[in-house]
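G., the chain you wanted modeled:
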Amino acid sequence: MNNSKIRVIQILACGNYGGAERSVQWFAQEADKTQFDYYFLFLYRGGTIRDAISSMGYPTAVLGWKNGYSLSGRLRLIKTMSKINPHLIHDHGMTPLSRIFMKLATKTPIISTQHGFGFIKGNTIPFLRLDDSVTDLVIANSNFTSQKYSLLFGRPMSKIKTIYLGINPDNYRDTTYTVPRTNDKKKMRIAFIGRMEEYKGALQIPLLAKALLDKGEDFVINVVGDGPMMEKCKSLTSNLNVSDNVRYLGWKSNVAELLHKSDMLVFLSLLEESFGLVLIEALAAGVPVFAYSGGGVDEAIGNAPFSWVIPKGDYEQMAVLIGKNKELCLNCDKSAGYQYVKEKFNIRRYILEIEQIYQEYSKK
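Predicted structure as tokens:
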């Protein structure tokens, strides 16, 4: 431990693949190690994200919480934090009554990044408000998130800062990921990347497949992700007779490799998503996107090239737009999306803003 550096603990719920977790991984990859010592704690379990961050040489730990009510998990959190003695805590989760324990353990400033609202239930809001009361600054990943957080928890907008997530677009442009098209150049390769949750649109996948098939399209949807709706999704896929058109691949660690084997990406979330990191990942890889509207999605891709926004839940309209624009998608200028992401969502801009906040709040 270098006492001259600022010690920052990053808190994540788990180390599986999701947009919030990937954003922390990209941060770890590009962060300044000369001024900061970073520690990454995963409350529930590890996974591909934890493995990737550990491989970069960062200290990581899985605290083994069995559920959100785990008292023993909170005690392990306090013990681990006391050993690190951080200057700052950056929480990326929404586990109720977790920040209260963090503050008790360290008395240090707490920053929270609000990545979304999918896991928030009505009966947890009073407890989350207690956590908010000990949070020094909330970072929101879109203007939509800032406004919704303020309404939900009563936090003044002056204590919320919007910072768009960032990625390194060069990680997605790497030509080593490029693969030949299939012999049948008309078959569309469609990607879906996300958790298999109902609110994430998991059941929309077979419905979209059926709509495309009914319109005579030749395609395959490659589904990367896992979750509680997986079996129900597979069952509906079978019942709709689209099993030949949908492949369930489970979790994959290399999103860029899948994207470069895709002609387009579909984003089917039924939530008002806070941002949608996978949308800018796809654009950086030169992959057109078809997305349900709402929330921060319009901020992420509203002016992006080769992007189509469809009313939420309207898989029939999405199928129509895919059919009309498939030739454009197959022959689009892949550098346009890359340039868009490089200019608007570059990881270096994101890291500079975050590290300036670390510098400021570590002195409080």
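The CA atoms of residues 96 and 123 lie 10 Å apart.

Shout if anything looks off.
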